[in-house]
Amino acid sequence: MKEINPEEFILKIPEEDTLKEINALFTEKVAYSFLVGAGISMDAPSYVPSARMFVKELFNYYAPDDEIESLSKLESLRYEFLVEKIQNLFDKDLTFLDYLDEVKEPNANHVFLANMIMRYNYIITTNFDFLLEMALKNKLASFPMYHSYHKKVMIIITKEDYEKNVRLQFPIIKIHGSKWDCIKGRPTKNSLITTISALGKDKEKGKTFAIEPFKKKLVDSIIENRDLVVMGYSGSDDFDISPMLKELTSVKRIIWIDHTQELETEEVYKYKPLEISKINTISNLSKQDTILLELASLNNIEVFKVRTNTINFVKKRLAPVFNENFETLKEDFSKKVPSFNEYMREHYFKTTNSFKYRLAHEIYSDLGEVQSAERTALAGLENARQENNDINEMFFTNALGLLYLTKGDLENALEKFNETLKLTDKLDQKNEKIGVLINIGEYYRNKGDLKNSLKYIIDASNQTSDETPNLLKFSIFNSLGVIYRTNGDVQNAIKHINIALEIAEKMGDLFRKALCYNNLAGIYFFQGLLEPALKNASEALKIDELLGDLDDMASNLNTIGNIYRTAGHYNEALKYLERAHRTADKTQNLKVKGLAANSMGVIYFNYGKLELAMKMYNEAYEIRKRLGDISGQATSLNNIGLIHRVRRDYKTANEFFTQSIEIAERIGEKTHLGVRYANRASIYEAKRDFQKALEEYKKALAIERSQQNLHGVANQLMNIGGILGDMGNHDECIENYAKALNIMEELKIKPGIAQALNNLGSAYYKYKQDFEKSISLLERSLEIYKEIDDPRMMSLTTQNLGRIKSHYESQRGEKL
Questions:
Q1: How many angstroms separate the most distant Cα atoms in the chain?
Q2: Cα(429)–Cα(431) distance, rounded to whole angstroms?
Q3: Is residue 812 packed enough to be buried (19+ CB in 10 Å), middle (13-18) or exposed (0-12)?
Q4: Pick from 728, 705, 790: which is nearest to 753 by CA?
Q5: d(Cα 520, Cα 540) in Å, to the nearest integer?
Q6: What burial letters (b/e) apply to 277-292, b meaning 16+ CB within 10 Å?
Q7: Those residues with Cβ within 8 angstroms of residue 704's Cβ, 6 or more apart along the chain or in another chain
Q8: Which burial class, exposed, middle or buried, applies to 428 when counting CB atoms under 10 A from its CB (0-12, 13-18, 19+)?
Q9: Which contacts qualify for 498-504: CB closer than 8 Å, 24 or more apart?
Q10: 361 and 88 Cβ atoms separated by less than 8 Å
Q11: β-pairing, 267-271 with 302-308?
Q12: What percent of the chain has pLDDT over 90?
């Protein structure tokens, strides 16, 4: 495919036409709405710190000294994520944000925007400061108190505010809420959206990335048939603002002011529409340009970018157009605003080292930084014991158990969980005890001991009450769902994971929401329902990438890789699986690394690269042995058996298949049991013991039907069809193949469709001598094999077609 040149779709306006273009974009004849972010408040005299500066200072007061540098370097760390941790551990009321009360001097950006408000243009801001309000208040000071302008000021913060009519008023829409309404003196701190959980709450069902539904009507109404100007916003807010922009349909134009210190003048760019699927294929495209191209392409909206120093642009270009003389601007003021560092020195919450290590550990753990998480857990445990802080000792002991569980060090994990269990009884910590019981259940599930796993999860469930935190209820329902899935009880698995998903949505817990989506993807994938599987897995991956959760990211990458593998898109599958393998290696998540290695082995096997396949299967097997993952070992034994079968070493293959079946039946796992019976049946088939093969295939079919695995049902119908043909039951053979084809077409699984067509084509030739039907079916099969790039089956089908066509021509010649 020809590489797309971004300059074909991002057109730079010639330098000599730049000013003319700016004058056309900004005129008194146009109605505007503005979306403004933190960047507008950083210039003098306001000097509001950036999110990164807030993060740095918060670490100075709440993180261990020896971890500050490492924490500050975490590229995936989001401001909202850290604020939630600070709120949970130290500053319940987020008093550090009260610093913004001290910043009272608007800059030129705020004064200009206040002017635009009074011209009946609308302002949406994501900022928590009150500088727009102050600028507007200063503007109105020149009007007598009885003037109607004073009554027009509206600060839109709460749900009730969004139901008001703002037409011909002076509204400021604070889309992420505010601690208070500084005009009317209303406390509104419950409206704040400054944590990950707050970003995840109150969303429309099925929409993780969007503004709350109650805000949408007002936002749409104030943007309709207007030009939208974006200022002081980087475009990094993928949770609500960027998705909100992508849903705009009635805006006339979007003008994005891209701040830079490098330019003294301006550069103007215009974005041309491009097919959405092609945008992500453009190399070296910035995140901002990606968003702007998407906006230009989604709804065919005119999109411009003005690259400039924002405050200079406002003063030099915009102020003259809109008659702003900045007479209310105080750039030289006597009262010095304290820096955020000075403010924190007076207002931070004193804490102990063990709590500081707890903050560091939770950040590292949630972001999949396993080595750092273990380092801080051990340091935290040592500090907790020195401080005689039993609660933190219990926390870190359990945390180490979870880390060992992730790394596959199961016996050390169980040891830590048992230590924690004793501490919960000693300290009478009921909720913590429920959590540890769940963790022990997960330990047994990782060992493949589903009976004991279920026992501990049920024990945890029996100890819950109405007061039990939602987080624990989530863990119970999610764990039960995963156990039911492993047992083959699909309906109960989906039911329990959906309950867990509802709890995660209620909490606004995006980490756990992503986990549920991935678990649902796994269930749909097992059923052969690839479209809903890919939809759920992609949603989970998108959340994890935004949160920077490497551990869950590896799991989601593995799931998506397997979906593409099953769909026959092997090259795409390998890309995802290799990423999963690398990410799991980085986070020391051996379980996912083993899964990815196994799946890569399957692809190499399908390509006929048996040595590479055996290498990956052996890697997966060794990992699973190290983990004590009996279920995984059974899968590896089965796959190694497949390679021996291809090499016609039927005795060894049968031994591997039988071992795999015996282990699965011993631990009560049905997920892949049907496939394993079918593999053993294939050995009997190769030895021409058709009756024994038919019995085994029928067992496999019954297992797949009991688990509602349509993909598995179709595969077994094809296997049974082949045996029936060999036994002389030709009509039943064709009937089974036709049923399998219908299911594969319904599931849209291309390799399965191709195989069923191939089988039918061969059957019509072999048993019915219906050459035309046979050739038609085989040609359809060959087209799909070409589409999914399966060289082995392309070669075999081409040879088969050639032989049948030759026979057909020969027979026709004889008749002539």
A1: 109
A2: 6
A3: exposed
A4: 790
A5: 10
A6: eebeebeebeeebbbb
A7: 674, 712, 713, 715, 716
A8: exposed
A9: 500/474, 503/470, 503/473, 503/474, 503/477, 504/474
A10: no
A11: antiparallel
A12: 77
Q: In this structure, how many other beta carbons lie within 10 angstroms of the beta carbon of residue 217?
A: 11
CA–CA distances in Å: residue 33 to residues 223, 225, 632, 705: 6, 10, 57, 57
SS3 175: coil
| Per-residue burial over 128-147, b = 16 or more CB atoms within 10 Å of its CB, e = otherwise | bbbbbbbbbbbbbeeeeeee
**DSSP sequence for 719-764:** HHHHHHHHTT-HHHHHHHHHHHHHHHHHHT-HHHHHHHHHHHHHHH
Region at 428 (left for phi over 0; alpha for psi -120 to 50; beta for the rest)? left
Cα angle value 443/414/497 (rounded, 5°): 25
Residue 84 has pLDDT above 90, yes or no: yes
Is 620 in contact with 634 (CB distance < 8 Å)? no
pTM for the full predicted model: 0.79
* Residues 116 and 323 sit within 8 Å (Cβ to Cβ): no
Tokens 């903050």 belong to 359
Phi and psi at residue 281, to the nearest 5°: -90, -10
Q: CB of 591 within 8 A of CB of 583?
A: no
Cα distance between residue 416 and residue 132, in whole Å: 53
Paired strand residues for 10: 271
Task: Read off φ and ψ for residue 302, nearest 5 degrees.
Answer: -70, 125
Dist CA 37 CA 234 (whole Å): 8
Per DSSP, the three-state class of 229 is strand
pLDDT tens-digit series, residues 495-505: 999 999 999 99
Q: Which of the pair, 335 or 475, is modelled with greater confidence?
A: 475
Token pair 């040592």 is found at 382
Q: Which residues pair with residue 303 across a beta bridge?
A: 254, 271
The pLDDT tens digits for 627-652 are 888 889 999 999 999 999 999 999 99
DSSP secondary structure of 415-471: HHHHHHHHHHHHHT-HHHHHHHHHHHHHHHHHTT-HHHHHHHHHHHHHT--TTS-HH
Mean pLDDT, the chain, rounded, equals 92
Q: 657 with 683: CB under 8 angstroms?
A: yes
Checking if the pLDDT of 105 tops 90, the result is: yes
Which segments within 27-76 are labelled E, that is strand? 32-36
Residue 209 DSSP one-character state = S
**Distance between CA 65 and CA 67 in Å, rounded?**
6
Q: Is the pLDDT of residue 262 over 90?
A: no
Tokens found for residue 370: 């396993």
How many Cβ atoms are within 10 Å of 341's Cβ, its own excluded? 13
Bridge partners, residue 258, by sequence:
307
The lowest-confidence range among 485-489, 500-504, 767-771 is 485-489
Burial (CB < 10 A; 0-12, 13-18, 19+), residue 106, is buried
The residue assigned the tokens 């060959």 is 782
